[in-house]
Amino acid sequence: MTRLSHLSLPLLASAALISACTPQPTPNSYSRTETMRPQSVELGTLQSIRPVNIRPGETRLGMGTGAILGGIAGSQIGGGTAANVAGGVAGAVAGGALGSALQGSQSTAGLELTVELDSGRTIAIVQPGGPNDFRIGDRVRVIGNGENTRVTR
After folding, report:
1. What's the pTM?
2. What is the torsion angle, in degrees rounded to the nearest 10, for the CA atoms of residue 131, residue 132, residue 136 and residue 137?
3. What is the reported pLDDT for 104?
4. Measuring CA to CA, which residue among 126, 122, 153, 127 is closest to residue 140?
């Protein structure tokens, strides 16, 4: 076996661990790009709460990383060129599926909150959270700029 094949397993494990370290957003946390920017605030009453599952973005990062690392690992299998190519293709497919599954396993529990604003308009916001975070009838603040809006009590 070559030295590269000995590195394949640690590379795959590292990719899985790095993808698991993605910080989970909450209604009370802000990214650096959200700070020091004006945001509109509207008040309203919470009309309904529905639990939802928030999937990670469709970046294909997990699948791509897995495919690359799987291809490297698989290409080290076998002694001839044909075996290396076949191993590389099989490794890329398996690695892509594994990377996609790892990224998909990072879903977050969330809530769909329907708020009747004091202006008379009704909106729904999906955000991370649990069923005990709000109660129907709560007076809430809707804070945001259209791209990133959250509901707080």
Report:
1. 0.56
2. -150
3. 53
4. 153
